[in-house]
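Table S5 (text form). Sequence records supplied for joint modeling of the two-component complex.
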Amino acid sequence: ARKFTDKHEWISIENGIGTVGISNFAQEALGDVVYCSLPEIGTKLSKHDEFGALESVKAASELYSPLTGEVTEINAALADNPGLVNKSCYQDGWLIKMTV
Amino acid sequence: MVLQSSLKNCLQLSCILRTPKAGFRSTTSGGLIIQSTSNDVYQNLAVEDWIHDHMNLENRQVLFLWRNSPAVVIGRHCNLRLMRQKNIKLARRRSGGGTVYHDLGNINLTFFTTRKKYERMENLKLVVKALKALRPQLDVHVTDRYDILLDRQYKISGTAAKLGRATAYHHCTLLCNADKFVLSSVLKSPYKGIKSNATPSVPASVKNLFEEDPSLSCEMLLDAIAEEYATQHQIDHHITLINPADETVLPGINNKAKELQTWEWVYGKTPKFSVSACFNMVYKDSVLDVKVDLDVKHGRIEACNIALPEQWLPPALCSELVKSLTGSKFCPNETTTLATTLLRVCPQDDELHSRWNLLCDNMITLM
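The corresponding structure-token record, covering 467 residues in total, follows.
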């Protein structure tokens, strides 16, 4: 099940690992994403911590952790293809995975 | 000192009053116009951070006016390597976008609102309206890339923005009388062979408003914009002067200014990039091909490869160099120090020393 924060990030939990991304509303508001700044694997995050930023043609927009945990994976595809966040925000445009 | 300058402005110009004010946070709701008394880019960027982090903008909006002594300011995700710095302050701001040159002939405007009310076009139209009220004959308009153009061709303003949890800010430059010679030389990007996903900086033809109309000054522009903002927000025509070093008005501000000056923020935030270069080194009467590959992440050399003609330098020494460079800062000073240290453990061999220095000098030109 996908859960949404009031800041339009979503988290989907399976076997103790949560996948985090932004909602369709958020990606539309952001405009075309040109760069994703994501944390290192192993970074410990508390709920509401800033964990990175998305830069779009509109602005640099911070990303906030929906839960407390540790980053286990980041979406490497976004380095060369940041537009995935716009095209497929719920699937291929996921941002990070973390323990919850 | 601050009171004098506010009186001076009153006498010189129009109906916009400037006063210093402690506790500006407690002003009435609606809107607030503040101006920095400092020309230090780090202090001024710190004020933006402070307002963004600490002010409640639910019932009011803020316009912040500031100017910096010469500095190059890059966006949050810009690649620093693509720039030439000539003893000019370098700052990385927290908003996105490309690279700009600031000096006292450029004015900076920051529009603070809640995230919901974030609206760049409206802000830029306000600036254009102010300019036209001041000088009706000026041909200025806003493009859909959020630039302001003069005479339909020259960029006089660039825009960037940051969206936070509850607040947002949009800031823009405005060229009044900046040094275009220095501007074009610091913003030139001479380096080829860089691969990176960093936010690109788009070069443009620029012009100063002063060139179009020599009767214009920065102070006049600031006043005109402040007046238009005050009119549109239905607030007093009043600018509050802010000293960015004053901890009593802005608690925690000096830490913010310090953070903006750390190597980790300015250089360490450079997105990952690779450099590949081939040098033709001329040594005595031969020409040597050298190939250097570097992967740089967070401002440090993650991986390094140097391909030299066999036996030109002792292989053990070369592999020591590669080992030392890996993990070190991508920075000419650091590389020079490493190279000098390694050379000290070598025998006093003039030939070796000159070859080594030639190689290292070339490596440093990459940085």
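Note: The CA atoms of residues 101 and 183 of chain B lie 6 Å apart.
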